[in-house]
Every structure is written in structure tokens, then in C-alpha cells.
Design a protein that fits this description.
Mean pLDDT: 93
Structural class: alpha/beta
Radius of gyration: 16 Å
Number of helices: 7
Helix content: 25-40%
Bound molecules: adenosine monophosphate
Order of helices and strands: EHEHEEHEHEHEHH
Amino acid sequence: MSALQSVCIYCGSSATVDPYYRTLAYRVGTLLGTQKIRLIYGGGRSGLMGEVADGALHAGGTVIGIIPHHMQAREIEHRTLSELHVVDTMHTRKMMMAEKADGFVVLPGGLGTLEEVFEILTWKQLGLHNKPIVIFNAQEFWNPLLGLIRHIIAAQFAPANNEQLYEVIESLEQLMPALGHENTARFSPEDKWF
Ligand code: AMP
């Protein structure tokens, strides 16, 4: 795999979560900034989204935000990003985020984060991309999600190799190695229907 130049972060926009998660997001941003890896994200400044952007910017990194115009006010757009793209729809936003990134990191988040995660997982399952997806299971936050995926596999609504669509990490030290791992599993539309 060629060197990773940009990473898309999916994370929560809620401003009222445990400060632990906010600090974690800031540290993830700092790490990307110091590694000179471009941060691609949803363009807001609330919750973990704002923290990850601030962490990267303060570390001298490049941050590209992509926000739909109808959410500009609601998500309180970040005003000091390297680039802010205002697009028409959520679909365009997610497509641009996915296209601009060489890999994806999932931090704790809410329903919007879940929606983004499932989309990028299913696109990989269908062979539309083969980029690394890292689920940051901080404080075991994503255990219910990981359990749900195992449940789906056990009931044969998904093939067992779906657990290879992503890598799960628990600490910041594991982030860069996980993003750099060669994806040995290959997914194609044929794998989806067994
Ligand atoms: P949340 O995890 O709900 O705080 O949302 C995190 C990010 O997901 C924010 O940038 C939201 O704009 C985005 N988002 C929220 N709802 C949706 C949705 N239905 N589809 C896609 N993205 C969403």
C-alpha cells in the first residue's frame, strides 16, 4: 500500500459527552497533524468533530471539512479549517469524504456516525474500495456494535469474513500501525452472496 496521506474520521457531534472522549479525539487529531496526514471530516466544530479538527490544526496539520449547506448552522461549521467544502446533500458529503481519504477511523459517536460507518463498511464489502477501516473501541464504547456484527454473522446474515472488513483498536499507539496494515482480505460482490 502506498503511504497514507489522508484519513477520514467519523465521530460524534454531541457536545455533552464524557470529556474522556473529547480528549481522545483531540489526541487523534494531534497525531494526524504531527504525522502530516490530512484530516478529512464533516466540517463541524461541535463535540468530538471539533476536537479532532482542533487537535490536527494546532499540530500544524491540514484539515478538510465537508459540510452540507443545510447543516452549516446546526453543526456550527468550523471557521478556521484549511479547506471547507459546502455541498448540497449528505450523500455528496459522504461521497467526497470517502473519495478524499486513504483510510477511515471510527471514534465514538451517535447515529450519524453509525450511518457513516455502515456505509463505508458495506461499500468495502461490495468491493467498491479496499481502504483500511479502524474502529477505535475506546473504553469498550463500540462493544455493542461489534457484538451485533458477530450476532449477524452467527445467524448467517453476513459471511464470517465481514469481521475482516475492519480492525479494532483500543489505544492511540495502535492507530498508525492499524492504518498501515496491508488489507489481505479482498472483498468482491460475489462474497456478499453466498
Ligand atoms: P452523530 O454521530 O449523530 O453525532 O453525527 C456525526 C456526524 O454524522 C455529523 O457530521 C452528522 O452530520 C452526520 N450525520 C448525522 N445524521 C446523519 C445521517 N442521517 N446520515 C449521514 N450522516 C449523518
